[in-house]
Amino acid sequence: MAFKEYGSYDAVGLAELVRKKQVSAKELLDEAVARTAKVDPQINAVVVKHYDYAERQVERGLPDGPFTGVPFLLKDLDLLEGTRTTSGATILKDFVADHSGTLAQRFLDTGVAIFGKSSSPEFGLMPTTESRLHGPTRNPWNLEHSSGGSSGGAAAAVAARILPVAHASDGGGSIRIPASASGVFGLKPTRARNPLGPDRGEGWGGFSCGHVVSISVRDSAVMMDAIHGPEPSSPYVAPPPERPFSQEVSRDPGRLRIAFTDKSPYGDAIDPEIAAAVREIAGLLAGLGHHVEERAPVLAADPAAVMTTIVGGNTALTVRLIEQRLGREMTDNDLEILTLAQSHNARKTTSTDYVAAQLAAFQISRALATFFESCDVFLCPTLCAPPLRIGELNTMSNDLSHIAPILRRYMPGTSMFNMSGQPAMSVPLAWNKAGLPLGIMFSARFADEATLFRLAGQLEQVRPWKNRIPPMCA
Q1: What are the residue numbers of the active site?
Q2: Which residues form the signal peptide (predicted)?
Q3: What are 82-105's pLDDT values in tens digits?
Q4: What does the domain layout of the chain look like in residue ranges?
Q5: Model pTM greater than 0.90?
C-alpha cells in the first residue's frame, strides 16, 4: 500500500502530513480505496462507491481546511450533488442527487475527499444496519454481530480503519449506538448545533442531528468547529460556544458532579458485563477527583411511545412524497415491510396524537433539565445489551412484533437526549469477555458540548482506545 502508517493517524494528523507535503491527498485517497477493497467485502460498510468524484476533487484542488486531503464517507441518507443516495431503499437504488445538503457542503469545505457513502438501514429507522437493498453491515469485532445503526456503515468503516472519521447522524441514538457497538467515539451534538438544510429545517421533529464518528476525540471537536452554526433556513439556533471545541479537548474538566446508573430507564435488568463496566468507569472517575453519585432521572413519559408517533409520522411523509413523485402506491417490492407498516400506522393517527407526542417529549426534556440542575454529567450505558446478532431485527418479517421488545432491551436510554436536544456521547471504554465493544454514554446540559469534550479528552488519556484494533481491520 502507498502509505503503510495511515492507520496510526487520526484525521487531524493525516491533514497535517498533507499540509507539510509529507504525503499527498492522492496517496491518502488511494490508501482509503485500497483499504476498502481489503475489508469491505467482509463488513459491507461502503455501499455507494464514487471514487471518481473524490478523484475529481483532488485533481481540481481541495479547499484549504482543517481536513484537507483526508478521505471521507458521507452517510447514505444525505445528498451530494451528482452522486447516488439510496437511503437504503430499493425504490431509490438509482436516485442521483441534483444538489448537496448544507452539511455535505460544509464537509466539502473542510477539505475532505468524499469517496463514497456509508451504509444505513432503510431511512435510518433501525439500530442495526441490515437493509434489504445492501445487505447487513457486519461488526469488525465479530462478523456475526451488527455494527449498530443507523450510522452502522460509518462506525464499521472507522473501526476497521478504512478511514479515521466519517459522517454520522442521530435521531434516536444513531451516532451513539454504532459508536458503542463498533468501539469508536461518537458525540451527538446539541439540537441545531449543525445544519440540516436546505430541504428541511429539522429532522424527526427536532430529534435528529448530524455530526461524525471517529477514532480520536479531537477529530470530533475539530470537525464540529468547522461545520457548526446556523444557515438561512434554521428555525432555531444553538447557543454559540465560549471557545473553539478543539480547545476544550485538552482543557482540565475540573471536578465534575457526575450522576450515574447501571440500570435501564425502564428499570429492566441489563447485561451484567455492561452494568459492571458502568460501575468500573464510575469508580475511575471518582479516582480522577470527580464527585460521583448513583442516581438517575425519572422520566415523565415513555420515550418509546414518543418515538413511535414522531418517527412514524415523518416516515409516512417520506413514503407519501415518493408515491407522489412516482405516481403510484409503494409495495413491499419497493420498501421494506417495516417502513410500510410504520407509514400505514402513522396514517391512522391524528394531528392531535402528533402534538400529544410533542408534548410528551417536552415533558421528558423538562424532567432532564431539572435533573441536570444538580449534576454536570450523567453517566449510563449506551446500550443495555451487547451488539445484536445479524438477523435479530427482521424488517421484512410479516410479523414485526419481535422488534419493540428488542429495542426496549437494547437501546432504552438513547432517545431521551434527542427529545431534550442535549449533547451526549458514547466513549469506547470497555469490552466484554467475548471481545465485543461496550460504549459508555455521557450526557450534559443543553449546549454544553464543552464539558463532554473535556471529559472525553481526559478519558482518552487515562483509558486510551486508539490501539485496540478489531480482528477485521484494514
Answers
A1: 75, 150, 174
A2: none
A3: 999 999 999 999 999 999 999 999
A4: 6-462
A5: yes
